[in-house]
Amino acid sequence: MTQRRRITLKDIAEETGLSISSVSLALRDDSRISEPVRTRIKEVAHRLGYQVDLSGAMLRSSKPKIIGIVAQLDQELHNKYVASINRYAQAAGYRTITQNASLSNGYRQSLEALSQLRINTSVAINPDFSGDELPPNLAPAVVVGQSRVAGADLVRSSNYTGLSELVLHLKSLGHAEITYLDGPQSYSSKIRRESLLRAAVEAGIKVHPIPAGNTVDDGFGAVQQLLTESWTRQKNHLDSTKLALSGITALTCYNDQVAEGAMVALYRAGFSIPGDVSVTGFDNSLGAASVAFNLTTVDRGTAKVAEHVTQLAIRRAEKQIESVEEITVESSLVVRRSTGPAFFLQN
């Protein structure tokens, strides 16, 4: 099979009758080329199948306009951040290259891969390191998360504001206690749990944390364990009202994926949501907003976080920042159909 020849700037120049430099400027949206000419050149480039040679561009440029991103792409929230950062970067004339820390040996190897591509302006989303163990050439310029990395700007979303609204929402529905499916062992999980406990104390509601994780399977497994324990305690009772008799009326989850797994386990066991138990998540993912789950959750202000991250990364690339910056974006409650009055208040 014959390999197709790569289309070059020279091919576009010959097709349009313009110089290679004019074609290059037009494809970079340089204002020195008129809008009609830019449009015509882009149409020809599209028709011919022209693709930018990123590796060549990075080698030729001492300051490539590329932002590297390291994220765990098996996490839907990370995907939302990556998509939003890419959108804001493109609007500013930058490109992005993303490394999946879930597939490699973690964040360090992903950052090493970006450094080999000569990308020195990188963003790490919820990294699992403090930065002290990283050499300066690998350290990210901007971090999305709850904890600082040495020398990097930090953009965080406030767990507390959205969780406070969530707790008050559940209290208004008559829920006096909350069972919390906790996240994995990490600093982010610790901060979220502490924020929930603080909000619950202020609202006069008890919280019972239970180890779970951050995946759909983790939520499914945690609820199956709860059901097993509940049914074991009640196996000699004729009344099998299931989970409700264990005193659980509200199930709050570390993230939306855990909540989705929990809901599937409850539905399979014959429960009504929110008739028997209310379920809430965190992150306001696409799944949470779907008709299938219609999940009450906390929105982390993903778009606003991504906007700040992109601005900081570009300012770092263009050396417009002298000191480390820290920005906090407020979270907020999104009420959907997975929450309702506690079962004992229903007619």
From TrEMBL:
Keyword Transcription part of the UniProt annotation: yes
Alphabetical UniProt keywords: DNA-binding, Transcription, Transcription regulation
Native organism: Varibaculum cambriense
Cross-referenced CDD domains: HTH_LacI (cd01392)
Residue stretches making up the HTH lacI-type domain: 7-61
Identification of the protein by name: HTH lacI-type domain-containing protein
Domain of life: Bacteria
Record-linked PROSITE patterns: HTH_LACI_2
